[in-house]
Structure formats: C-alpha cells, structure tokens
C-alpha cells in the first residue's frame, strides 16, 4: 500500500492541470476527457464551428465539498458558498481520483492477499487474548498461598494485564481502516488502539519539544525535582494558541486560558491545575521566589473529555448547583505580571492527578499563600502527581501597566529594576618585590 | 629513472661484440667505454632544510597560561579564573568560557575547582559559589541558586511626548524650543547610517544650503578672468600653507644636521 501511494500521487500531480479543465466543464461542454494526448479529438474539431457563444458561468461549475482538492477551489467554496471542505485535502484528492470502492472489493490482488494475511494475524491475536483472559481469571481465583504469596500474585497479575493490553493493541494496529480513521481524526479515544496511536504521535514530536523546553527553561529542577509528562497539554488564551515557552502579551494573558488535556490511559481522573511563576524577584534578598497564580481542583478529565476552559469552570456549575463545596477554583486567576526591567518570568501550568480520584477540599486549598508558594511541598501535602505541563513567559510590555492597575497592583507600576553596579576588586599595588 | 635509455649504449656494444664473448673481468671496461657521458655520483643531498625557520621555533615566549585565581578566592563578574589552550577545564556553575577557552566568572563569589560525575564523568569544572562555606557541585534536583543583581527603583511617571519632538527609539533628539542647530530641525528624518549611527541622508545634507538661504554666485562658463583670479587665490593660499608647515619643521631638520 505504502509503495503504491507515492506513484498515485505523482500521477495526480501530472494530471492535475488536465483534470482541472476536465472535471470542471467536461460534462457540460460534452468534450471527451482525453488524458495523455496532445492532438485534438476529431469530434472536437468538428464542433468548433458549431459551438455558439459559451456561457461564462460554465467555467465555474458548482463544487463538491467532499471532493475539492486544490487551494483555489477550496477558497472559492468557502467564499462563494460558505461551505467548509470536508476532511483533509489528502483524503479529498484520493476520493476524487478513486471510484469509491470499499477495501474488500479493491481490485489489487497483492493488497487483498495482504489483507487476508492481516486478518489471519488478527484472528490469531484474538485467540491469544481469549486464552490470556482465561489465564488471568484463573489466576485471580487462585489462592495466594498457591501462587507464592500475595505480592508475587499481584506482580503476576500486573504483568499479565500489561500483556493483555498489548495484545488488544496488536490485534488492531495493522488494520488499514484503523490507520485511516486515526489519520482523519475520527479515532475513538475510548479504544486502546487509537489511544496508543495518539500517544505515539505525541511522543514523536510534541513531547520532545516540551521536554526540550522543560530542560532549557530549567523547570526541572527549579520548580520540581523531576518530571515525566504523560498527558498532552495545549494552552490557549481565547483563540491564541501558545507553544511551550512562548512570550505572551500581558493583555492577552490577563484573562484565564483554556487547557486541552489529552490523556492516553483509560478512565476518568480528577486533576488539579496549578499555575506557578518561578521568577518573582526579591531585591531585598537579592534572589528569586515563587508565586502561585492559579489553583483549581477536582476537574474531571478522561481520554474523551479533554477540554478544561478555566474561565468557565465555576460559571457553568453555578447554574446547576449553587453549593460552595462544588467550586473548582481555589485561588482565582492573578494575571501574570512583571516589573519593568526585571528578567522574564516563566509561568508553568501544571496538570496534576489527584490520588485515587479523590476530591480535595477546595476551600482549604484556597488558604494557601500566593507569595513564596513551593509546589514541591504543596504536591506532597495533597498527594498529587504531575501528569502534564506547559509553560509560557511574560515580561514588561506596553500593556503591562494597565493590567497591573486593574489587578490592584498600582503601586508596583512605577517600580523599575536596574542593574546593580558591580564594585571592582580593590586594586593591588605592585610592590618592588613583585617587580 | 629511465633505465632502458641508460643501458642503450651497453646494449649496442653487446650487439657489436656478440660474435666474441667478453671475459667477465672486462665487462666493466666495456661498460665504461660505452658510457663515456654517464656520471654516477654517490653524494647524498639533504632532503630537509636544517637551517632557518624550517624546523619551527622551539622556544617562543611563554603565554602566561594557567590559574589566575585559586580555589576559594573571591571573584567578581568578568574576572578571568583560568587561561588555557583547549579545554583542560570546563565552565561550571556561574562561569562561562571565553573565545580563547579561558574560564571567567559571571557572578560574584568564591572559586571552586571540582568534578561533576553526574554531568560528565571525565571533565573537570571551575565554578563560582555564592557562599564561602558551600561546595560544588550543588545537589542535582535542588532548585538552582540564582541572584537577581538588580535594584528596585521608583520610576517617575513617563513624560508625555509633545508635538514636534523627534524621538528615535527611546532617545529624544531635540526639545521643541528651537534652540538646536538647523540640522536638527524636527522636520529632518534620521536614518541608520553605515556606522550604526543615526544621521541625515546625503540628499538632505545637500539641501541644507538651499534651506538656509545661502546665496552662491552663479557659475558663468567662459569667464576666464574670474577663473584666473580664483586659481591665483588658491595658489597663494597653498603657498602660504606650505610656508607655515616648513616653518614648524625647519628647526628640527637643522638640529639633526
């Protein structure tokens, strides 16, 4: 399949110019589609004299949103008819050229043989899954004394479960339909295969960048001693997406961001979101400290429920349940701010899993002090484990003064940081002996 | 060497005397007779120059490399701690490496020479720690120790920029009182020149006289009298200048003689 694809694509690009005129008005004009021929068809030559003045609108026939495959047509579709094209351009291009034959009936012998082979493999895997399930059930029913103590039994159960999960993924991983669905973004994240594929995709690019940023900006060890992100976190202020480590304008970051947290393992989790500033200057101590900008707890997420709009957290809930205990936000959003002249501030957004999905007491968390907030001890106290992280930076800009005024930091607006003069070492006089 | 050509006469002589065999003791004579022009020298010439710069300077001036600050010594940012060729030492905490691999401090503190097997098993580092009692390396998972090295200053509220003031970047070029020279008039536009300095464009400089209303007598082609007077004045001025120069020089030359 993979070897066929590029050749088809090449052929497509070769024929694109020909096809454009052909698919546009071929049916209307009655001209035959003659690919790969440079001479005019005899019928066409005969018709030249007969043809009357053509309708100028025939040049632009209506477009099919499922089949447009070039930029110009897509734009025309969106502008003129206000319809968004369906699916990816790759898919539309493929659909346009292929007669829509299902996989089972595709007339490629090699492909069909390969499918047969994969189906056999899948049957084998399913059989293995059944036996493994049976074994696991037997083990679960077994007396711990027989299987060598409770610890040994649990370890065996764990390893057997892991193997079972792997088998479930292996059964579907080679299915061309699964691959197609995943690439089109229609994968069901409740199914282990799609979660596995999404995880692989994340680890191949986005996570590498995130790791690099964590390293470059010294999030480890400045905020946490170690970090192993297992969930994909996307940060956006309104419609503005923020890549890890970007500078964000103070006016943009004045309102709360929204998070998209994609987890890759099964089940619902309760998470706490914490935003920490790691570069709060203290000129008295000639050093830096931390400040907490936001804490929200008890937010449910799952592989299918990924969105955390922080600005809507308490608003939506208030309508249904007006209990103070059901609030999510412990510490409301403090807009990130930096003094003029001070070095940039790194703001890290942590998504932390609550142990055993137990709800935390939000009002108790709300008593934590913002200044001098140490995430290490906060995490230990509440038994949180970090699963996802993203970060952005902020520094003084032209909108900062207004943002600080509105946040009630009017006295800080006029404070500016200037470099301290380094006193030179006392000059050592050269004595006669030294000469 | 082309051996066949050398032996060609020998071959010829052999062919000549092919009828009669030469006794072995006379072979060399035959050879000599045939090769009257060939000289075989057994002198061995030098292939490597023994004198001059060929062997390189063996003992140049010392480059004063090595430690400039000892362990535990107090340094300030920019102090060079170690000079070296190559990287015998690497920069550790609060240190950087210069263009010539010298290690210098980026923070004020106390010099430490140390190894950090977690970072690199073989390298030796030079670092600067803030407190006298501290040792390097710091524990790997602890938060970094950093200094602000800045002062918080109350800033006056920003002065409002009035009309007619030229602001280039953050720099205010002139006040709008009109006290400045006509070149710095608010209407002039400053552009970045070659030497990274803001200056007027050449065409604007060319218009200065016109703007200032400087009158120049018009040039009349063919007015020889005026041309002669001008050239005479120029020559006189040059001669005067030359005389002045000579006057200052003369005493020196006299002394030398």
Detailed description of the structure:
The complex is a heterodimer of chains A (435) and B (257). Chain A is 40% helix and 18% strand. Chain A is extended, with a radius of gyration of 31 Å. Among the domains of chain A are: 109-199, no CATH class; 227-412, Phosphatidylethanolamine-binding Protein (Alpha-Beta Complex). Chain A has 435 residues and is of the alpha+beta class. Chain A has helices at 4-29, 42-50, 71-81, 89-97, 109-141, 149-173, 176-183, 192-204, 206-216, 219-222, 313-320, 362-365, 375-382, 400-406; strands spanning 232-237, 240-242, 246-247, 258-262, 269-282, 287-301, 307-309, 329-331, 345-354, 384-394, 415-419. Chain A contains 14 helices and eleven strands. In chain A, the strands form two sheets. Chain A has a six-stranded mixed sheet with strand order 3-10-9-5-6-8. Chain A has a four-stranded antiparallel sheet with strand order 2-1-4-7, with no helix packed on it. Chain B has 257 residues and is α+β, with helices and mostly antiparallel strands. Among the domains of chain B are: 66-129, Beta Barrel (OB fold (Dihydrolipoamide Acetyltransferase, E2P)), CATH 2.40.50.100; 181-219, no CATH class. Helices cover 25% and strands 18% of the residues of chain B. Chain B has five helices and 13 strands. In chain B, strands 1-3-6-5 form a four-stranded antiparallel sheet, with no helix packed on it. A four-stranded mixed sheet of chain B has the order 2-7-8-4, with no helix packed on it. Chain B has a two-stranded antiparallel ribbon with strand order 10-11. The longest helix of chain B has 33 residues, at 224-256. The interface between A and B is medium-sized, with 28 and 25 residues. Strand 11 of chain A pairs antiparallel with strand 9 (150-154) of chain B, so a sheet runs across the interface.
């Amino acid at each position: 399949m993979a070897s066929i694809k590029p050749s088809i694509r090449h052929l497509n690009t070769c024929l694109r110019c020909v096809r454009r005129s052909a698919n546009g008005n071929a049916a209307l004009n009655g001209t035959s589609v003659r690919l790969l021929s440079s001479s005019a068809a005899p019928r066409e030559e005969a018709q030249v004299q007969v043809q009357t003045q053509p309708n100028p609108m025939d040049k632009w026939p209506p477009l099919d949103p499922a089949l447009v495959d070039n930029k110009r047509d897509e734009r025309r579709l969106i502008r003129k008819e206000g319809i968004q094209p369906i699916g990816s351009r790759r898919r539309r291009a493929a659909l346009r050229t292929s007669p829509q034959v299902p996989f089972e009936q595709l007339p490629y012998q090699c492909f069909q043989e390969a499918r047969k082979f994969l189906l056999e493999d899948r049957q084998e895997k399913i059989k293995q899954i059944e036996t493994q399930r049976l074994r696991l059930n037997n083990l679960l029913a077994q007396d711990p004394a027989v299987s060598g103590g409770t610890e040994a039994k649990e370890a065996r159960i764990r390893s057997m479960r892991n193997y079972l999960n792997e088998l479930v993924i292996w059964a579907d991983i080679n299915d061309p339909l699964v691959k197609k669905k995943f690439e089109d973004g229609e994968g069901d994240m409740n199914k282990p295969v799609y979660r596995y594929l999404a995880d692989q995709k994340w680890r191949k690019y986005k996570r590498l960048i995130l790791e690099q940023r964590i390293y470059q900006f010294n999030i480890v060890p400045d905020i946490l001693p170690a970090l192993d992100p297992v969930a994909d976190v996307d940060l956006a202020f309104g419609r503005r997406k923020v890549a890890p480590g970007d500078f964000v304008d103070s006016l943009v970051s004045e309102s709360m961001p929204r998070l998209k947290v994609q987890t890759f393992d099964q089940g619902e989790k309760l998470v706490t979101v914490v935003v920490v500033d790691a570069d709060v200057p203290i000129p008295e101590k000639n050093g830096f400290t931390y400040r907490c900008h936001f804490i929200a707890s008890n937010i449910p997420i799952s592989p299918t429920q990924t969105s955390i709009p922080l600005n809507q957290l308490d608003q939506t809930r208030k309508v249904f349940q007006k209990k103070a205990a059901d609030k999510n936000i412990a510490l409301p959003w403090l807009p990130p701010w930096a003094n003029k002249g001070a070095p940039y501030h790194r703001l890290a957004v942590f998504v932390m899993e609550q142990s055993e999905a137990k709800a935390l007491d939000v009002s108790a968390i709300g008593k934590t002090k913002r200044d001098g907030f140490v995430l290490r001890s906060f995490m230990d106290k509440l038994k949180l484990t970090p699963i996802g992280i993203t970060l952005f930076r902020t520094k003084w800009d032209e909108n900062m003064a207004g943002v600080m005024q509105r946040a009630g930091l009017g006295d800080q607006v006029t404070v500016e940081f200037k470099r301290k003069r380094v006193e030179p070492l006392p000059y050592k006089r050269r004595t006669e002996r030294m000469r | 060497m082309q051996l066949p050509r050398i032996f060609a006469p020998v071959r010829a002589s052999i062919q000549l005397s092919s009828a009669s065999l030469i006794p072995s003791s006379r072979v060399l004579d035959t050879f000599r007779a045939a090769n009257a022009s060939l000289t075989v020298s057994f002198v061995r010439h030098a292939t490597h120059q023994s004198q001059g710069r060929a062997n390189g300077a063996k003992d140049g001036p010392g480059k004063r490399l090595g430690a400039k600050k000892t362990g535990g010594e107090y340094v300030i940012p920019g102090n060079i701690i170690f000079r070296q060729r190559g990287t015998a030492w690497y920069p550790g905490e609060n240190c950087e490496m210069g263009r010539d691999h010298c290690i210098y401090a980026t923070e004020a503190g106390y010099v430490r020479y140390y190894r950090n097997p977690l970072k690199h098993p073989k390298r030796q580092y030079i670092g600067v720690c803030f407190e006298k009692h501290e040792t390097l390396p710091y524990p790997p998972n602890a938060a970094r120790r950093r200094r602000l090295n800045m002062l918080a200053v109350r800033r006056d509220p920003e002065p409002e920029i009035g009309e007619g003031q030229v602001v280039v970047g953050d720099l205010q070029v002139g006040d709008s009182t009109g006290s400045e020279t006509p070149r710095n008039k608010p209407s002039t536009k400053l552009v970045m020149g070659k030497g990274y300095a803001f200056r007027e464009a050449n065409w604007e400089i060319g218009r200065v006289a016109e703007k200032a209303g400087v009158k120049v007598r018009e040039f009349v082609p063919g007015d020889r009298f005026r041309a002669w007077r001008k050239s005479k004045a120029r020559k006189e001025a040059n001669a005067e200048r030359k005389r002045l120069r000579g006057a200052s020089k003369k005493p020196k030359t006299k002394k030398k003689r």
